[in-house]
Design a protein that fits this description.
It is a single chain. This protein is mostly helical and 99 residues long. The protein has one domain. 68% of the residues lie in helices and 0% in strands. Helix 1 (4-30) runs antiparallel to helix 3 (51-78). The two termini are 41 Å apart.
Length: 99
């Protein structure tokens, strides 16, 4: 079971990633709707970019990131807890060496 701090850091990172990926996919979906976007692309001599392909290439990293986050959460849940020492074990002197 992960520590409370590790869980908080993880969920803050998830929130930041979700906000960023939503903004990326949204901007990719809306780029062609901007006035003059077609004229700018065709005037520059570049091939026209289809909105579906643009959204797909923006969504693929989002899906990969979701997989990494899921895998990380799973690993955090299965990680063994850090061993705790009792106060008496911590105060005991270390052995002096071979006898």
């Amino acid at each position: 079971m992960p520590s409370a701090l590790a869980s908080i850091v993880f969920w803050v990172a998830v929130l930041c990633c979700v906000v960023a990926e939503v903004a990326i996919v949204r901007s990719a979906a809306l780029v062609r709707r901007a006035a003059g976007a077609d004229a700018a692309w065709s005037g520059a001599g570049l091939p026209a970019v289809r909105r579906g392909a643009e959204v797909l290439w923006a969504a693929l990293p989002a899906l990969a990131l979701a997989g990494v986050l899921w895998w990380t959460w799973h690993a955090m849940q299965q990680a063994p807890a850090a061993p705790t020492q009792s106060p008496s074990a911590a105060a005991a002197p270390a052995p002096a060496g071979p006898r």
